[in-house]
Design brief:
mainly alpha; two-stranded antiparallel sheet; Phstyr_phstse_ac; PTPA_C_lid
Length: 324
């Protein structure tokens, strides 16, 4: 999340290099087409930048409530407007009558609107001197809302939204002091739009591991949400399966918002429909939960070919080997 402002006293050569860099944006494309390519991904600058971004935010939200005070920049406000637009389009695109309960085809109408407008939407968020980055960054926004062929949504789509935010940091639209707002405002609003999409169009979970996965749709809010709880004086992991605790504290904690959504969407005993989370509730401390979830995220999402084969690489998230 380095700042990319011109350093005082920069030479014309620096500025020429900056200008050239501005031209070098490219439309991201898939690079991981076979299982052996996974090594290339794990060694890539994109992997290093992506995991660094996730962990920086994990550190930033540690011990903080959603309702705490933090700076909300103009870029953050613009991102919230963008997400508000996506939400409004759902209202304007009601589900259609169809024989199958799942995968409502109206989702494709909604998606085609985003497909057409994504670049224009992203342009509103970028500083004028980075306007050339819009086509590159817009790809990640389009990838972050699910698949319009299969009408499904999963952790790979969620990763595309984190990649979208990471790119906005790399071009300097989002800054280091936006960290809390990135998670608590922008990502949280994204989650509420995704839940509305999943509900409205009865989206299928992409590559779901069923009862053995952490959650049908999301992963990152469990990581960042567990970090929020680190060193909490009273709430321990064993408390999140208590519905009273969830109802009382979900406005403050992302993790509990996720549990609340699961409770609304699923019936039957929690231990049966969400076995992994049930197991996590037995872990003694939130810092252990947090560390375990980061390991699990790497193993179950970032190191799984079916997820990463869809990831796209451009100039901002590069497939080139990471700088040592």
């Amino acid at each position: 999340m380095a700042e990319t402002e011109q350093q005082p006293g920069s030479t014309p050569e620096d500025e020429a290099a900056e200008a050239a860099a501005g031209v070098a944006f490219i439309v991201p494309k898939k690079e991981i087409s076979m299982v052996p390519d996974m090594g290339k991904w794990k060694r890539s600058q994109a992997y290093a930048d992506y995991i660094g971004f996730i962990l920086t935010l994990n550190e930033g939200v540690k011990g903080k409530k959603l309702t705490c005070e933090y700076k909300v920049s103009e870029t953050v406000e613009k991102l919230l407007d963008l997400l508000e637009t996506l939400d409004r389009w759902i209202n304007e695109t009601p589900p259609v009558d169809q024989p199958s309960r799942f995968g409502n085809k109206a989702y494709r109408t909604w998606f085609s609107k985003l497909d057409q407008e994504a670049e224009a939407l992203v342009s509103t968020v970028l500083p004028p001197e980075k306007a050339a980055a819009a086509p590159e960054i817009a790809v990640y926004l389009k990838e972050s809302v699910g698949n319009s062929t299969r009408i499904d949504y999963g952790t790979g789509h969620e990763a595309a939204f984190a990649a979208f935010l990471c790119c906005l940091c790399k071009v300097g639209a989002l800054r280091v002091d936006d960290q809390l707002a990135i998670v608590f405002k922008v990502f949280n609003r994204y989650l509420s739009v995704m839940r509305k999409l999943q509900r409205t169009y009865r989206m299928e979970p992409a590559g779901s591991q069923g009862v053995w996965g952490l959650d049908d749709f999301q992963f990152l809010p469990f990581i960042w949400g567990s970090s929020q709880f680190i060193d909490h004086p009273t709430l321990e992991p064993r408390h999140f399966i208590d519905e009273r605790v969830v109802n009382e504290h979900h406005q403050d904690y992302m993790f509990l918002e996720c549990i609340k959504f699961i409770n609304e969407m699923k019936t039957g005993p929690f231990a049966e429909h969400s076995n992994q989370l049930w197991n996590i509730s037995a872990v003694p401390s939130w810092s252990k939960v947090n560390q375990g979830l980061i390991r699990m995220y790497k193993a179950e999402c970032l190191e799984k070919f079916p997820v990463i084969q869809h990831f796209k690489f451009g100039s901002l998230l590069s497939i080139q080997p990471a700088k040592p």
